[in-house]
């Protein structure tokens, strides 16, 4: 799986984790704080977090930012959020495939809606 593997600098990846580890669920640190402190962009922070999650680090996310989960239930909100994104992406993929089939049979695109 290639999610998160695009974040190469281990030093920065470890720095992101070090900042998050200072916050246990339900407190948190916002991405903007990490970005400013480490001179990173949001995408870089997300890639580092994805890398650590794939390494089974219990990083939670929510309205208070990123934190480390201690109890199994601490991960519930993050898992629900990720599952919702997964379902939404599945719906988008299905719509795009239906559009592709429409185009293959010569059915005009819905451009008049724009």
SSE blueprint:
Blueprint lengths: L9 H11 L10 H8 L3 H13 L4 E4 L2 E4 L7 H29 L10
Antiparallel strand pairs: 1-2
At a glance:
This protein is mainly alpha-helical and 114 residues long. The protein is 54% helix and 7% strand. It has one domain: Winged helix-like DNA-binding domain superfamily/Winged helix DNA-binding domain (Arc Repressor Mutant, subunit A, Orthogonal Bundle), CATH 1.10.10.
CATH homolog superfamily: Winged helix-like DNA-binding domain superfamily/Winged helix DNA-binding domain
Topology order in helix (H) and strand (E) letters: HHHEEH
Mean pLDDT: 91
Report the biggest beta sheet as strand number plus sense, adding barrel if it closes: 2 strands, antiparallel
CATH class: Mainly Alpha
Gross morphology is elongated
Compute the number of helices: 4
Question: Termini separation (Å)?
Answer: 37 Å
CATH topology assignment: Arc Repressor Mutant, subunit A
By DSSP, the count of extended strands is 2
Round the Cα radius of gyration to an integer and report it. 19 Å
The CATH architecture category equals Orthogonal Bundle
Strand residues, percent: 5-15%
Question: What does the model show?
Answer:
54% of the residues lie in helices and 7% in strands. The model has no long low-confidence stretch (mean pLDDT 91). A hairpin with a 2-residue loop joins strand 1 and strand 2. Helix 1 crosses helix 3 and helix 2 packs across helix 3. The protein has a single domain, classed as Arc Repressor Mutant, subunit A. A two-stranded antiparallel sheet has the order 1-2. The radius of gyration is 19 Å and the shape is elongated. By secondary structure, the chain is mainly alpha-helical.
